[in-house]
Write a structure and sequence with these properties.
9 helices; globular; mainly alpha; 213 residues
Length: 213
């Protein structure tokens, strides 16, 4: 009860501090923030591309690990803190909803890629394995939701399995990039993952420090 009162009071104070903001100012701040995120995202994509070439892990795995982790960090913190606060449904719905909306945004990304449809241009065994990995992890989570209420020390047995499958899946993604057992039909619109010569000799420590920064 005390926590609810404090939360309401904090929300009221926040509103009072910002009620002087005009709609125009709020809209301007929104567009400025969007522009900053877009610029940083573009720079980050270039940096991750160089990391993929330098480490040799491929763009599919680098995008899943480096870009996925960095752009999902706010969502990870939100889900963890929400679960810590006792809001189980919010934590699960936020994580699953985030995956759904990011997948839906592929439609917008497809519209901005002018050479061909995005899925055709990015066809590779590594991206195929990324999709299989995502479906496998989501299937486990759904099984845990509809399955019997069983846990060990308040942790569902599926939880460590999800982490283990993610790590194992990343190894499969890397293996499918190095030694693919399937390859898409190459057309003039297919964009193969070919490392740029200059990126392969960059200082790896400097690239990692730039990514962390």
């Amino acid at each position: 009860m005390n926590g609810s009162i404090l939360s309401i009071e904090a929300d009221r104070i926040f509103f009072l501090e910002h009620e002087g903001w005009s709609f125009t100012l709020s809209l301007a701040l929104f567009f400025v923030s969007t522009a900053i995120i877009g610029l940083v995202g573009w720079k980050l994509t270039q940096l991750v591309d160089r990391l993929a070439d330098r480490t040799g892990i491929g763009e599919a795995l680098a995008g899943a690990v480096f870009l996925g982790a960095s752009t999902s960090l706010p969502g990870i913190v939100t889900s963890v803190t929400t679960a810590w606060g006792g809001h189980a449904e919010f934590a699960v719905s936020h994580a699953l909803g985030g995956i759904a909306i990011q997948t839906a945004f592929l439609a917008i990304a497809d519209m901005t890629y002018r050479h061909a449809n995005l899925e055709h241009a990015a066809a590779s065994s590594a991206n195929l394995m990324n999709g299989v990995l995502l479906m496998s992890m989501l299937s486990l989570i759904l099984l845990a939701i509809v399955g019997p209420d069983f846990s060990l020390w308040n942790v569902h047995p599926v939880t460590p399995c999800v982490v283990a499958i993610y790590i194992f899946g990343l190894r499969l993604v890397h293996h499918s990039h190095v030694e693919p057992l399937w390859s898409p039909k190459v057309t003039p619109h297919t964009k193969p993952d070919e490392p740029e010569a200059g990126n392969c000799h960059e200082n790896l420590q400097k690239l990692l420090m730039a990514f962390i920064a």
